From TrEMBL:
InterPro entries reported for this sequence: Dimeric_a/b-barrel (IPR011008), Sec-metab_biosynth-assoc (IPR051807), YCII (IPR005545)
Name of a matching Pfam family: YCII
Membrane-crossing segments per the record: none
This protein's name: YCII-related domain-containing protein
Top-level taxonomic group: Bacteria
UniProt record similarity statement: Belongs to the YciI family.
Domain YCII-related: 12-77
Organism field: Micromonospora violae
Amino acid sequence: MFILELSFGDEPDRLAARPAHRERLQALHQEGRLVMAGPFADDSGALLIFDVPDAEAFAEIVAADPYYRTPGVTITSQREWSPIVR
């Protein structure tokens, strides 16, 4: 599994890009590649948990979504995670 943590700025481009990003997330969830995702309560960022086999598959998901390169969206952390309880 892989975790992606984002931080958000105030740029309006972020909100304009969000609907398409959320559609991608729904598709990834239906495919079983996204476990959960959502913004922090204060909307300062978000956390996403992906269930993919390796770092290459994770990198492909991130590269395919322009939201992660949108002004106002910053990837603050991306790392592999080994949960012990699921």
